[in-house]
């Protein structure tokens, strides 16, 4: 930290700098902050939920990749390693972040493309088994790409969308899901952590509700993978997708992951039948025949270069442990909460995220009418949250790369600008 925030004991009664110093001193993950590339001129980075920071050594790892795997081994690397990277990297993510046994996860396309493949695959399997299951359930506050993909799949397959009206300041509840699922439901698509409010849905209970209606669930884990513990196998989830450039620090445009539970491997078929997901791709044979197991989720040539930073960052997450990450995440968002809650009411800042730990993901959203302009000025100063219309400032506090002192100094900068 280069800038020390001004201590505001008089106004709030609490010396937040001292509180943060104690929390940092007691933080078992404190040393991980220095395992990320330093960012010159940035004093507080609150956007780990949008673009995670690069792990230290990422540049060297990419250089080594260019010189060795690509530059020297050349095309031999496909056989020696790269062909297996979608499944192998998928297993690394599954083990570190998803609570999934190996053989059920691949890293492949973008989140959007994988969402399409998985939603189409699950919907088709359901309609095949029971033509009356023509509904896809999702919520009005789901991430735009999820809504658009579902609209496309529904139009393509003559299916109907059933919308849950989610509260933008919280998210989809078990009761809301129970109300809409029926013998007509094919698939339910929900985000585990709501991108706007940070609301953490009860994935285990909702999955049970969906199954009780004979439907399948597809979870979007973009805002939970790497931040909130996920137990896909234990929760009996059918399928999930998520991106790797947020809390998984894979870098801009790093490929997404898709999980499909073992029990569906022979019945669920994704729609983009490409040669890389075919049995024996180099036989170049006639007709598509899916490769056995999770490999059939792959369509074309895997984005190998883009997996290099991800493989490094997932190893870092595995070393820290997702439960320790979650503990720190809650402590970071608690601190941010307490600081904002201590501000005088006339500043007009409200918190639009759940207070209860069991309902809170990895970020907090605070609201004020002029946060669009405030955000722009913060960015100029090297304090970097992000803005979500109409008036939300999102504080994405990535536990491995964020210190408690950073939370205090960044929020002090917000307060200075609005006072
Ligand atoms: C970030 C995010 C996405 C992003 O999709 P891309 O295809 O990677 O652009 C999708 N869904 C949710 C919930 C997200 O938070």
Tell me what the structure shows:
The chain has 419 residues and is α/β, with parallel strands linked by helices. The protein folds into 2 domains: 4-56 and 321-418, Alpha-Beta Complex (Aspartate Aminotransferase, domain 1), CATH 3.90.1150.10; 81-318, 3-Layer(aba) Sandwich (Aspartate Aminotransferase, domain 2). It is built from 13 helices and 13 strands. β5 (185-191), α9 (203-212) and β6 form a beta-alpha-beta unit. α2 (16-26) runs antiparallel to α13 (404-418), α5 runs parallel beside α10 and α12 (371-381) packs across α13 (404-418). It is globular, with a radius of gyration of 22 Å. The site of pyridoxal-5'-phosphate has 13 residues, from α6 and α7.
